[in-house]
Amino acid sequence: MTLKNPTCGDVINLEINVSDEKITDIGFTGEGCTISQSSASMMTDAVLSKTITESLEMAQIFSDMVMGQKRSAEDLEKLGDAAILSSVMQFPARIKCATLCWWALRKSLGEEVDD
């Protein structure tokens, strides 16, 4: 699944293997800013070995977090290192950079999303 952020040129190509409803392998290639690449790296670590349901929930938690919506500490803990990107909400132009890989994850797992 390849997604692009036309406003700044970020590109993420996400490859996922799923077996028995679990992510068994995940990787990405891409170009772009540090935020988009860091977010993708942290996301791949966070969702590896998670179920599709867990991964989609994590994607929603991440999206809510960077949009400034309150989430419980327990929810943020599910994100692992990716929770450090919560400060992105202070820079609206960077939200799409941080969420691009999470949108690619959602689309790859069959969720209907608008990119």
TrEMBL record:
Residues 3-97 form the NIF system FeS cluster assembly NifU N-terminal domain. It holds the Pfam family NifU_N. SUPFAM superfamilies: SufE/NifU. InterPro entries: NIF_FeS_clus_asmbl_NifU_N. GO terms for biological process: iron-sulfur cluster assembly. Gene3D superfamilies: 3.90.1010.10. One of its GO terms (molecular function) is iron-sulfur cluster binding. NCBIfam families: SUF_scaf_2. This is NifU-like protein.
